[in-house]
């Protein structure tokens, strides 16, 4: 699995385990992700995948390196997916 595939799978897992926020983003703690059996089977290096996703601005969290135990309560926020251009145009037409 390449990095892009892993980041895509990570997004799916955050949506599965996290709570949707009013702005459309998802929030989950590192401890929940790290201790989930399904995530453990998917991601050989969860911390590396998180860092790759953060570099791609797919998600955000405080700090650089997350460690089990110490950072279990750190919130990981999967940013809301941008609306496709067709929906943005339709939405602005409705407002006008």
Give an account of the 3D structure.
By secondary structure, this protein is of the alpha+beta class. It has one domain (3-78): Arc Repressor Mutant, subunit A (Orthogonal Bundle). The chain has a four-stranded antiparallel beta sheet. It has helices at residues 3-17, 30-35, 37-42, 46-55, 85-95, and strands spanning 19-20, 26-29, 59-60, 75-78. Helices cover 50% and strands 12% of the residues. Residues 1-79 form the Costars domain. This is Costars domain-containing protein. Belongs to the costars family. It holds the Pfam family Costars.
Sheet of most strands = 4 strands, antiparallel
Task: Bin the helical content.
Answer: 40-55%
Give the overall shape: globular
Q: Kindly report the CATH topology.
A: Arc Repressor Mutant, subunit A
Order of helices and strands: HEEHHHEEH
> Whole-number radius of gyration?
15 Å
Give the helix tally: 5
Spatially, the strands of the biggest sheet line up as 1-2-4-3
Distance separating the two termini = 45 Å
| Integer count of domains | 1
Task: Look at the helices and sheets and give the structural class.
Answer: alpha+beta
Write the CATH homologous superfamily: Costar domain
Strand content bin: 5-15%
Question: Averaged pLDDT, please?
Answer: 88
CATH domain class name: Mainly Alpha
The CATH architecture? Orthogonal Bundle
Number of strands: 4
Unreliable segments of 5+ consecutive residues:
none
